[in-house]
Amino acid sequence: MVDRxxxxxxxxxxxxxxxxxxxxxxxxxxxxxFYASKLFSLKxxxxxxxxxxAKSETCDMFMHxxxxxxxxxxxxxxxxxxxxxxxxxxxxxxxxxxFTPGNRKTLADEYEYVMQGxxxxxxxxxxxxxKAEVNASFGGLLMMLKGESAQFKNxxxxxxxxxxxxxL
Length: 168
Description:
There is one protein chain. The protein is mainly beta. Helix content is 0%, strand content 49%. It has strands at 4-15, 25-32, 40-47, 49-56, 62-68, 79-85, 113-123, 132-138, 141-147, 160-167. An eight-stranded antiparallel β-barrel has the order 1-4-5-9-8-7-10-6. Strands 2-3 form a two-stranded antiparallel ribbon. The radius of gyration is 18 Å and the shape is globular.
């Protein structure tokens, strides 16, 4: 059984709350091929990014999440289930870090949108703002999750995370 680090239902409050700063981002993917001529090829892809501002129903969490809206369009007012896990293996075994094709079922089969990333910042609350905050990057798409520090007790700095979403 997969141990989810966090799971809740969120409602989208606003899209791009600070304006459309992420109209078209460029992700550069480099492929090196070491042939006799040492051919170097460069592929540019345009990525349409939407920053989602959402609030959870049961844990009173606030979230900013960057989503590739070309692949997974999302609208204001929509509700979605979001989970954070450290593995996609249904038996809870650690992820190897490598994609292994096959007919093996994973947690990703239960969701519509999955990203893999790393937790890069954990902030404790202060007297002025008692809410704690975690920040993660999923290949440059960012997530900020803010709420009671008790919700973040299973998170560790530099932890690999899988973010899984399905609309309700």
